[in-house]
Design a protein that fits this description.
Na+/H+ antiporter like fold; 19 helices; globular
Length: 475
């Protein structure tokens, strides 16, 4: 690709970043769908017809581009969550849906896809486990349509409360504005997410799950690497459990907590007047903190993805209602949008350039089974039977919310990163088939979940608006 062609590609991405969120606001056609389609078309244009963007040919670039996109998204997700995670029983109970999705649904999903990869696709067990681990996490990048909109400060909460007074009667109705407009979470980076209720349990569950499961899927990726490199499980399971699971998770939490606390002190309680970042509204602190925490944690051997999310939660907790969080989140969201645009365009070019050439009907069946059966079923079972209101009077996942939460397990950029990373760490057979299957699954997820987000949220709101329905209180 020439420099001029690269400038053209970046220009197209920037134009789409400006135009698509507004253009697609009222239709069930998401920006990721349009971007992948644009990438396929761009790949056939004369300046790009000889360009090779296959992840098999550029594994290192693919890995680091996806890696950067994911860690930026994780910082944004952490800053967006209003619900605190504290060392109290009530706080941990408020995150109950998240723990169920992580501890039950994700391992079951990995096991099911591993079995299908081995049984249906004929993959060796190491490659099948890699496929299961790569496709397991709910993506924090492409799931914006069903996630919370951004940090709600005390001032914003007061404004929303006054606007809703006498109209909605409950914060539970907060998504209605978007549902009536025909758009839910359009993915825009304008920092304004009208009507997206930060207390909505569906959005919270999917957002918090996306923030944590990228890191927690990594031990399973390493299990696949060990299977490929070191042989039977009996040779390495104790070291894997002690270090890859316990040790690296502990380091991720520790360095994330300390990093977030340090960033909070710099932002909100500086000892030097020159460091008045919150007062001056300097948004780059969030990006600097993201790279600092991630790099440091990876250098000491911990899970950097986990550390970034924990750091964002800790930074938010330092001054939960400060407007500076909105400023940082807007900057992170814009950068995430740009990186996502570029990656999706590249994925579209790769799809048009033969990424699906090695896809078999068995691989396609596994991808479809994951999206329509495995993820919905495992998440539905994990979430258990819940009423609309728990015993303490707080909002919970009712039967309808449970169905929507289970279905929207979006696959995306994280899967690209895991596969690119693992294929460089060990020699896996059927690499072309793995890439074709993952690419196909992401494509189906983008289309199905992109078109389904608005109708699903509108359906939930129509049910909530029915006369006589009990309105739960918020945590």
């Amino acid at each position: 690709m020439t420099a001029d062609a690269a400038y053209l590609l970046v220009g197209v991405a920037l134009l789409l970043a400006v135009i698509l969120p507004t253009l697609l606001k009222r239709v069930a056609f998401s920006a990721p769908m349009a971007l992948i389609l644009t990438g396929v078309v761009v790949g056939f244009l004369p300046p790009f017809e000889t360009t090779r963007l296959s992840p098999l040919e550029h594994p290192t670039i693919t890995e680091h581009a996806a890696e950067l996109c994911v860690i930026v998204a994780l910082m944004g997700v952490g800053l967006a969550l209003d619900r605190p995670l504290e060392r109290t029983r009530a706080s941990w109970r408020a995150w109950g849906s998240t723990w169920r999705l992580l501890a039950i649904a994700m391992p079951l999903c990995i096991a099911a896809v591993t079995f299908l990869g081995w049984w249906a696709m004929g993959l060796p067990i190491a490659a099948a486990l890699l496929l299961g681990a790569a496709l397991a996490p709910t993506d924090p990048v492409l799931a914006a349509d069903v996630q919370v909109g951004g940090p709600t400060t005390e001032q914003a909460e007061d404004v929303a409360r006054h606007e809703d007074e006498g109209v909605h009667g409950s914060v539970d109705d907060g998504v209605r504005g978007d549902a009536e407009d025909g758009a839910v979470g359009d993915g825009s980076a304008d920092g304004v997410h009208e009507g997206i209720d930060e207390h909505d349990e569906v959005r919270f569950a999917l957002t918090s799950e996306g923030g944590l499961n990228d890191a927690l899927a990594f031990p399973f990726v390493y299990a696949a690497i060990f299977l490929a490199d070191e042989g039977p499980v009996s040779e390495w399971w104790l070291r894997w459990l002690g270090w890859e699971v316990v040790g690296k998770i502990a380091l991720g939490v520790l360095f994330g907590y300390l990093g977030g606390k340090l960033l909070g002190r710099i932002a909100f309680r500086p000892r030097m007047t020159a460091f008045q970042f919150a007062r001056n509204g300097e948004p780059l602190l969030a990006l600097a903190g993201t790279l600092f925490v991630y790099g440091l944690t990876e250098l000491v051997g911990g899970w950097g993805f986990l550390a970034v999310f924990v750091a964002a939660l800790r930074l938010r907790a330092e001054e939960r209602h400060d407007e500076y969080h909105v400023v940082m989140h807007e900057m992170v969201e814009r950068l995430e949008l740009l990186l996502t645009l570029l990656l999706l365009l590249a994925l579209g070019v790769a799809l048009g350039d033969g990424l699906l050439a090695h896809l078999t009907w068995q691989g396609a069946a596994v991808g479809l089974a994951l999206i329509f059966v495995v993820r919905p079923l495992t998440a539905w079972l994990a979430l258990g039977r819940q009423s609309d209101v728990d015993e303490e009077g707080n909002q919970s996942l009712g039967p309808r919310e449970r169905i929507v939460t289970a279905f929207f397990g979006v696959r995306g950029i994280g899967s690209i990163y895991y596969l690119a990373y693992a294929l460089q760490e060990a020699d896996f057979p059927y690499a072309e088939l793995l890439w074709s299957t993952v690419g196909f699954t992401i494509l189906v997820s983008v289309v199905v979940h992109g078109m389904g987000a608005t109708p699903a949220m509108r359906w939930l709101e129509s049910v909530r608006d029915r006369p006589g329905r009990q309105e739960p209180s918020t945590p």
